[in-house]
């Protein structure tokens, strides 16, 4: 009798699991597609389990087969060709599928404003791909609601003027160290020039800066964490092609096992540093120290050690990868447009003559360089898209949107929208920012490289000052051009990067200033 009961229970359990799976993977997607269809929102048809992902991958592979001309800044063809195709077929707002998860792609600026600024409690941040969890950490970037407000109190004050000044000096030192290596290579060359990979060197500069800013005297451990984080980032990029199946990240695949090893290494190193500082009550004067001091002064709210580990990981990932990307693409544009390289160099020399070097006050002085960087963020911003997730059933303009729907904002497309930026939206034109970014387009918040609204990137001023110092310092000593070996193929590896690096021909100025 007992075996029969066990078999019956097993059969019932199997039936329940199967029914639930079919509801989630089959019936629900088709019901949601019909729901949106009745509201006039269409899109590519849902495919069982995988949704639109295989079609996205096919179009990206096809787009990568062709090299772009270096004068073409239309990287939508290599980064988001699927969004362009579907927008042409289905309109500015359309439905597509991230596995069985419904997603609305939104290129209407009024709807974007509602999502990012007006109703942030309803449209919340979400990883979607769990592979990003160990890379970005469970920090303020992906926190929501009261948890985000609590964490923000410990993070935003860390980006104070004193820390930005300290970062300026560290950035200057790290850039000069890289330039010394260039000088040595040029000295060895009979042609008084050398080829460098600016993508690699941008990474190295940005990693050195964030390692020293984040953990100061614990620089060696910080560097080890960053190296491990870079490998995690690479593994996370591969994981985007994994089946969209709940629990896949727990399977002991070779990649998952390596991810777990790196995760354990990073957690243990940061935890030991935090616990050592808490135990000695010597917090140090770095970003981690700023968080610890703020926590020590707070009588009501605190962060646990695990939460501080998450914030450190977020700082590491967001603090170097986005800055490195911006440095790389700014150098690409300056190398591609020598007249702008000379104009910005003249501005830098005029504002910082002789051996005076740009420090914390450079943003107010270097107007042309700031315009160049804003145009770089428009054409080659580090982040290709923003995503939010509806926390409950809601209404967005005229649309009724069910809970759990992803809202995708394709920045690569929006930043090239001629209805927003004008007829020259595909062209390089930093002068569009001569009156500031709020007046550069028909919509005041059209530039979304750092997002906008309450969830705007807390470190945007930090990053902009860092990148200005790097570029200005290089311009005072070197002239550079694209190497003939450069292949123009922007690719989205979490951040936007040149697929085959950025080889530049670097020469010393006749008279460095």
From TrEMBL:
GO cellular component terms given for this protein: membrane
Gene Ontology molecular function: any one: monooxygenase activity
Amino acids binding heme: 457
Key word Oxidoreductase present: yes
Compartments, record wording: Membrane
Listed GO biological process terms: lipid metabolic process
Source organism superkingdom: Eukaryota
Alphabetical UniProt keywords: Heme, Iron, Membrane, Metal-binding, Monooxygenase, Oxidoreductase, Transmembrane, Transmembrane helix
Needed co-factor(s): heme
UniProt keyword Ribosomal protein, yes or no: no
Protein family: Belongs to the cytochrome P450 family.
Protein name: Cytochrome P450
Gene source species: Triticum aestivum (Wheat)
């Amino acid at each position: 009798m007992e075996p029969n009961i066990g078999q019956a229970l097993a059969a019932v359990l199997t039936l329940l699991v199967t029914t639930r799976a079919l509801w989630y993977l089959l019936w629900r997607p088709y019901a949601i597609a019909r729901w949106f269809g009745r509201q006039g929102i269409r899109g590519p048809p849902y495919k069982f389990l995988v949704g639109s992902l295989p079609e996205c991958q096919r179009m990206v592979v096809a787009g990568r087969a062709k090299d772009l001309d270096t004068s073409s800044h239309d990287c939508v063809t290599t980064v988001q060709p699927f969004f362009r195709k579907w927008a042409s077929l289905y309109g500015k707002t359309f439905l597509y599928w991230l596995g069985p998860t419904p997603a609305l792609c939104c290129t209407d600026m009024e709807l974007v404003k509602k999502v990012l600024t007006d109703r942030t409690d309803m449209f919340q941040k979400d990883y979607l791909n769990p592979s990003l969890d160990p890379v970005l950490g469970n920090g303020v970037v992906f926190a929501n609601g009261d948890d985000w407000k609590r964490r923000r109190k410990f993070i935003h004050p860390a980006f104070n003027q004193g820390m930005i000044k300290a970062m300026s000096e560290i950035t200057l030192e790290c850039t000069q160290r890289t330039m010394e290596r260039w000088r040595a290579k040029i000295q060895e060359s009979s042609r008084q020039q050398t080829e460098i990979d600016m993508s690699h060197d941008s990474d190295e500069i940005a990693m050195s800066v964030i390692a020293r800013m984040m953990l100061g005297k614990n620089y060696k451990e910080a560097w080890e964490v960053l190296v491990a984080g870079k490998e995690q980032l690479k593994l996370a990029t591969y994981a985007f092609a994994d089946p969209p199946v709940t629990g896949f990240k727990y399977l002991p695949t070779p990649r998952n096992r390596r991810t777990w090893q790196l995760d354990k290494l990073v957690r243990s190193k940061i935890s030991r540093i935090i616990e050592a500082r808490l135990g000695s009550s010597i917090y140090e004067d770095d970003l981690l120290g700023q968080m610890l001091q703020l926590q020590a002064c707070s009588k009501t709210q605190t962060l646990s050690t695990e939460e501080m580990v998450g914030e450190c990981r977020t700082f590491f990932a967001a603090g170097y990868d986005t800055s490195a990307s911006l440095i790389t693409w700014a150098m690409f544009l300056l190398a591609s447009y020598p007249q702008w390289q000379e104009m910005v160099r003249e501005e830098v020399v005029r504002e910082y003559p002789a051996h005076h070097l740009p420090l914390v006050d450079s943003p107010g002085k270097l107007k042309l360089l700031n315009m160049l960087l804003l145009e770089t963020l428009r054409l080659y911003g580090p982040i290709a898209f923003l995503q939010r997730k509806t926390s409950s059933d809601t209404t967005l303009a005229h649309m009724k949107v069910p809970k759990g729907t992803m809202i995708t904002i394709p920045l690569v497309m929006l930043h090239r929208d001629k209805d927003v930026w004008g007829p020259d939206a595909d062209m390089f034109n930093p002068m569009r920012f001569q009156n500031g970014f709020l007046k550069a387009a028909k919509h005041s918040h059209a530039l979304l490289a750092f997002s906008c609204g309450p969830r705007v990137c807390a470190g945007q001023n930090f990053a902009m000052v860092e990148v200005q110092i790097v570029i200005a310092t290089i311009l005072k000593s070197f002239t550079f051009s694209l190497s003939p070996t450069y292949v123009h193929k922007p690719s989205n590896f979490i951040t936007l990067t040149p697929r085959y690096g950025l080889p530049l021909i670097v020469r010393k100025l006749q008279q460095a200033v």
